[in-house]
Amino acid sequence: TLPAASALAAGKVEAAAALASVPELIRGYGHVRQASAEKAAGERLRLLDRLAKMPVRPGLQAAE
Predict the structure, then answer these.
(1) Are the C-beta atoms of 11 and 54 separated by less than 8 Å?
(2) Widest pairwise Cα distance in the chain
(3) pLDDT band at residue 4, thresholds of 50, 70 and 90?
(4) Within a 10 A sphere around the Cβ of 24, how many other Cβ atoms?
(5) DSSP class per residue in 1-64
(6) What is this structure's pTM?
(7) 26 and 36 Cβ atoms separated by less than 8 Å
């Protein structure tokens, strides 16, 4: 495994993987695709919020 990946909390890795798979939710054509895209956008926001609320481990903070 990668050092950075092993340093992440398991929940954060799961949320990041779910976020990466959001485009797979967009399927169909026309109005079906539009509805799928709207649902995917909501899921994306939910997952981004979940990631933002997870604590950052001190060793992984960005340099400023």
Answers:
(1) yes
(2) 46
(3) low
(4) 9
(5) --HHHHHS-HHHHHHHHHHHTGGGG--SSHHHHHHHHHHHHHHHHHHHHHHHHSPPPGGGPPP-
(6) 0.66
(7) yes
Joined together, the tokens standing for residue 53 give 């609320």
Residues 6 or more apart from 15 whose CB is under 8 A from it? 47, 50, 51, 54
Residue among 36, 63, 59, 60 at smallest CA distance from 16: 60
Give me 16's structure tokens. Answer: 């990041």
- Note the pLDDT of residue 59: 59
Q: Residue 1 — pLDDT band, cuts 50, 70, 90? A: very low
